[in-house]
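[stage:ingest] chain + small molecule (flavin mononucleotide)
[stage:ingest] validated
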Amino acid sequence: MTKNTSGPEFSDFLASRRTTRDFLTTPVPEELIDQLLTDAMTAPSWSNTRPYLVGIASGERRDRISKEFLSRWEAASAALKPGIMGKLKLFITRYGLPKSDYKVFRPYPNDLKPRQQKVGAELYGFLEIPRDDKQKRQAQWGRNYEFFGAPVSLFIFTHSGLGEYSVSDAGLFMQNLMLSAHAQGLGSCAQGASALWAEPVRAEFKVPKEYKLLCGIAIGYQSDAKVNSFQADRLPISEIKLATDD
Ligand SMILES: Cc1cc2nc3c(=O)[nH]c(=O)nc-3n(C[C@H](O)[C@H](O)[C@H](O)COP(=O)(O)O)c2cc1C
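[stage:predict] done
[stage:export] tokens:
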């Protein structure tokens, strides 16, 4: 089969995809979303089982989920502020406490923590948000819950019966989807943040009980906001190549 894309062109294309964290409100036609899904389905899959399902939220459905997320985030972030009242309210009402299908926030292992801290420090530094300005940091993180303004949020569910291989398949699917979006002139942001509270998402779709919410993907056209020119560090391959005995 002939291919139109040369190796170096393809490498450039891959490298030019960057996470989008500010979107225009311009709607994305349903046919275009279907094209992204069709492209995503060309990813390899464990015994071709495709152990994932996708919820597509746009329009009022998107707005309802965002509203509930923002409300829960407000309750959760009140507890992060100094003072006892916010913490007490969260403890008593439990409204805002993470309730995810998969564990979203967990302590980073010691060997990975420096990488997580680096990208955080660099992103907030780029946005000129001081390290100790918790309010601004929380506000920036809170933008996750309006999907950074994106008109569409996809929600990826994986079959719990295949364990890690469902999640791995979903990752391959997501990467194809985000590259397809990039090729179509769309931006995307994978969002673990969108899996923090599963209930408001499950309430919007008919999700079989064995499917668990893994994460969201915000999709839309990029704005020219500064945050979209942030370039996360790309680790050299020497960092991931295992040493050998010889
Ligand atoms: C599964 C997954 C979840 C992510 N969750 C978030 C998120 O909740 N919020 C966010 O701003 N970025 C999120 N990201 C984006 C990463 O921070 C980003 O991919 C990384 O810093 C590398 O930057 P790049 O995509 O521009 O190359 C997520 C990425 C992945 C793969």
